[in-house]
Backbone:
């Protein structure tokens, strides 16, 4: 299970219509950047577009952030919860289509005891985060 978080952006320029600013993607956890893609083109078949993978050693989990407009990190950077890691965008095979508003696609994969990555539903964590900000 993965979650898509959309911003209010009628003209799809990756600028929030309410604030007139780009929207930062914040890291959900501490960890190390283990993979990024900072380049994406319309002809690319890369589904996640500009993406980031952050590994969290404490929980043995990977956090995947996709469809970003601008990546604010480098490979091997150490991040803390709440650090700005990217800006919300429309990169990637399906996110770039006219029907799709700018969005963050986020997923957590936890390694099981055989080191197989299993998806973990983040919905309750995201709801909790929203409650904390209010």
Residues:
């Amino acid at each position: 299970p993965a979650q898509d978080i959309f911003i209010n952006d009628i003209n799809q320029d990756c600028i929030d219509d309410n604030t007139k600013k780009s929207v930062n993607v914040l890291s959900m956890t501490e960890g190390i950047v283990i993979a990024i893609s900072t380049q994406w083109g319309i002809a690319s078949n890369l589904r996640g577009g500009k993406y980031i993978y952050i590994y969290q050693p404490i929980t043995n989990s990977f956090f995947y952030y996709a469809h970003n407009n601008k990546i604010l990190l480098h490979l091997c950077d150490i991040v803390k919860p709440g650090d700005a890691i990217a800006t919300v965008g429309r990169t990637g095979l399906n996110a770039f289509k006219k029907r799709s508003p700018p969005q963050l696609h986020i997923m957590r994969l936890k390694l099981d005891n055989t080191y197989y990555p299993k998806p973990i539903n983040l919905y309750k964590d995201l709801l909790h985060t929203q409650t904390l900000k209010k």
